[in-house]
Amino acid sequence: MAYQAGGQRSVPRSVPEGPEARTYLQDYATLLEAVTFPSVVLDHRWDVVLANTAFASLFRGVGPHPTAMPGDNFLRFVLFHPDAGTVLADHESRWCLPALAHFASAVERHGHDHALESIRREIAQDPIMDAAYRHGLPHWIRAVGEQAVEHDGAIRPLVHPDPRWGATDCRIVDETPRALRDLGYTRLTLVLRPARRPAPATRRTARPRRTAGHLSVVPAPEA
Length: 223
Prior knowledge:
With 223 residues, the protein is of the alpha+beta class. Helices cover 40% and strands 13% of the residues. It is built from nine helices and five strands; from the N terminus they run αββααααααββαβα. The chain has a five-stranded antiparallel β-sheet with strand order 2-1-5-4-3. A hairpin with a 7-residue loop joins strand 3 and strand 4. Helix 5 (91-109) packs across helix 7. It is globular and about 45 Å long.
């Protein structure tokens, strides 16, 4: 995994070529761990390169999944993990659709990337998600504007397992320095806001796990 829970320092998941870049990432991991808000470094596939303990704590209640753990690939987690909606509130409209928009943008830039092609195949296996991606997404982007494909500044709801935060919002802040950008990485920090209400203790058991065909905010086109 990209991060180690329990207060241990984050370590890079993938090691770039060159000792200077590796040393930079090791020092950047120390900086990341000092941040109190969930913070993560992603590559263009949304693979998690670094993440701090606060990020791990946010998702500590999600169950295991072979390909969609939040500490492995955050895009896969948003789209495919059945527990994603227990943490990412208003999951379909506020997280899935923006994630699909970001994915479409990544495909335009890195169309022959095998990992992105694999995600596209998984999207195609869910008829409703596939219809949303192919037909509904362009209409949604036109309706909400080009900011749909921008991380920085977006405000999204979530449910933190720590009742001190509970049901709240976060502002996504892009904090990518030039050195990370030159490596092809992006750093995002979820700046948490004070809780709107305490997180209910039965949240995970009361909410059904997501299954295939979950995405309903963009209906499939009529035949």
